[in-house]
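Entry 14: structure prediction run for TauD/TfdA-like domain-containing protein. Input pasted below.
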Amino acid sequence: MAPSVSDKRDGPADDPIAKAKAALQQTNEPSYPFYYPYFDVEEKFPPTEIFEFIDPGTRADPAKPHLLNPNTTTKDISPYLGTEVTGTQISQLSKEGLDELALYAAERKLLIFRDQDFKDLAPDRQIEIARHFGPIQRHPTSGNVKGYPEFHVERPIPEYRGGDRINGTSWHSDVSYEKQPPGTTFFFILDQPETGGDTLFLSQAEAYRRLSPEFQKRLEGLRAVHSAVEQAEFSRRRGGPVRREPVETEHPLVRVHPVTGEKALYVNQGFTRRIVGFKHEESEYLLKFLFDHISKSADFHVRATYRPGTVVVWDNRLTAHSATGDFDKVIRRHAVRLTPQAEVPVPA
Ligand SMILES: [Fe+2]
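Run finished. Output tokens:
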């Protein structure tokens, strides 16, 4: 009888299965092992405390002379959100330039910076730049970097794969359960598939504008509960860390941006659970409508694409996003987020 596949596993060096495994291991070697996700179940953080926040965008020169220099090229991806920027090096920006970056991110919602040296800076310098935009959130459950809990590491094989869903689309606004959720957010790619692995983004400001004035009026003044409980339970079930007890926070359904004054919907399927003061069915009904509205309105969606050196900066207060699970599992996608927290959301 011919040997079975399993019989051949420990075969000679030219064994095709052993070769394939070795090749797979090689493709899975991270280019930046320093940022390999680190999980310490013993790591604990105290509850977050309210801090005073002044958005750096309020100090910015609207002309943005320190951000957009004569070598800078910008190209809008959609009228509503997203601009690709080349010729500006984030690492070289002065304090004024960083202030202008906050304003530009608020205006365009999403900025895709190409050819950045950001990933090759020292981690302390990366943190220093991001900290200009607010104290950096330390994620309660995700992979971080040993000794640097400010980094949130995007898992090489995203956890949303698997389960019994038809697709992996999962619209959310990062950690919106925090009392002071993130504002200007940084995401830099370390390894990416040749094709695929984009991030979908949408404008929550345009989502709000599309509603009728009567419906807008009904939403204003409402508050919704954003919950960290499921995320913490998911981590616990897998033996992962829960560094801080999960919080549930009420936020306005429509919030106002502190720099631009723009109104935006502030609900997301990832973390928004119920509308305060509504009965269960009423809350379900309205949230389902809003989740459908934002997820189906492709005319204010864009895709952020990645190339080596890409740094994506977005305003978490005005957008929702989702990963795309459209590349083969064996291909490494490795990215890191720095997530400065902003103001207590201002109701419309
Ligand atoms: Fe996210």
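Notes: Residues 172, 174, 321 surround fe (ii) ion (CB under 6 Å). Will compare against the previous run tomorrow.
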